[in-house]
Amino acid sequence: MSHPSSVVYRSALEHYLLTYGDPELPPSWLMVETLTLGQLNNVIDNLRLRADRTAIAKRLGLTDPVLTSWLRTYVRVRNICAHHGRLWNVGIGVYPAIPASPAISWLKGDAALPARSEKRLYPVLVSLQSVLDMVSPRSTWARRLHQLLSTRPPMNLAGMGIPAGWAEDEFWARHLDSRWTCVQGSS
Hints:
This protein is mostly helical. The chain has helices spanning 12-19, 28-34, 37-45, 50-59, 64-82, 122-135, 141-149, 154-159, 170-176, 178-186. Helix 3 runs antiparallel to helix 5.
């Protein structure tokens, strides 16, 4: 089946189904791209073999328990946002596991995640950046987050569990320092 090059497809899945007849089913990566966060969480939770979850987590630089915890947290945060809920100054009910392994990209300082911050939005932001470190190492998300948060009063940041001086922690500083990003990007 051929189509003119000017055809605009709504999705890669639509393109595949209209363009290719063999194999009948599209590749798994294409199917995963069409899943919602909740569906992705369910797929990973329902994998029969723990080794499969472990292999997926490893590709993201995580462990199985950390991956499942973070996915559940992302689903919760997404649902709060989708239903116009509040993330500021509230607990979100589901929290990302704090990685014990030094191999997982995480905050470096001993006081980088105060106990009062563990049940707020801040560790979710850290976990998102940790995943981005693996899947999109050149992402500018940390810089954009810093720009956004630097416009907010300290009281608002504290309500989200973001500690004073958060950007000075090595975890964030390496993303905010353009010299590090240039060195990282050239290797």
